[in-house]
Write a structure and sequence with these properties.
heterodimer, A: 113 residues, seven-stranded mixed sheet, four-stranded antiparallel sheet, 0% helix, 50% strand, globular
Chain lengths: 113, 111
């Protein structure tokens, strides 16, 4: 089944404890992106990647890191999480930038205490 | 900076009505526009993608139009059903790969 998977789906952690949220797609998509969704602020783009080893900042990249070493994986890294990073996170992918129908993962609900 | 606005924020209609959701954006230099639906606590499901060179796209009871010059898109839902109840989001994409989402319209279709 073609899909975007994220792990974990739910995570409660404490301030400063490094964490990684994984994202994987099995559709051979070139483009991948991370978003966070917050009440009243909508969906905001954190980072995106046009292809392997190519990443760019979205609108809210502060406090996050990403890497794209393989086409299928695009992990989101929080080196030192803070409570203001409590949010619902979505990973998405599309075949290429020029055919940009994005497919979304199920989301990861992160709580930072 | 691109801004995307969706009006109305919420809409309640009786089953069977035809309805229109609106999306406006401030920078017309977009690559394409995509409409999604999001059910409570769930991810986003793609409904329609309109390339910047297109005027409209149709899928079943859904029709989306795009007027790039005026910075507007509409999503038309025909013969609404209770199963259409969800939040509908529009997103615009630039050629560089950046995306901007609207805050969504929450639709309730009453039986």
């Amino acid at each position: 089944e073609a899909q975007v998977t994220q792990n974990p789906r739910y995570l409660i952690t404490v301030t400063g404890k490094k964490l990684t949220v994984t994202c994987s797609q099995n559709m051979n998509h070139e483009y991948m992106s991370w978003y966070r969704q917050d009440p009243g602020l909508g969906l905001r783009q954190i980072y995106y990647s046009m292809n392997v080893e190519v990443t760019d900042k979205g609108d809210v990249p502060e406090g996050y890191k990403v890497s794209r070493k393989e086409k299928r994986n695009f992990p989101l890294i929080l080196e030192s999480p803070s409570p203001n990073q409590t949010s619902l996170y979505f990973c998405a992918s599309s075949f290429t930038r020029s055919y940009n129908e994005q497919f979304f993962g199920p989301g990861t609900r992160l709580t930072v205490l | 900076k691109q801004e995307v606005t969706q009006i109305p924020a919420a809409l309640s209609v009786p089953e069977g009505e035809n309805l229109v959701l609106n999306c406006s954006f401030t920078d017309s230099a977009i690559y394409n526009l995509q409409w999604f639906r999001q059910d409570p606590g769930k991810g986003l499901t793609s409904l329609l993608l309109i390339q910047s060179s297109q005027r409209e796209q149709t899928s079943g009871r859904l029709n989306a139009s795009l007027d790039k010059s005026s910075g507007r898109s509409t999503l038309y839902i025909a013969a609404s059903q209770p199963g259409d109840s969800a939040t509908y989001l529009c997103a615009v994409y630039t050629n560089a790969g950046k995306s901007t989402f609207g805050d969504g319209t929450t639709l309730t279709v009453k039986p």
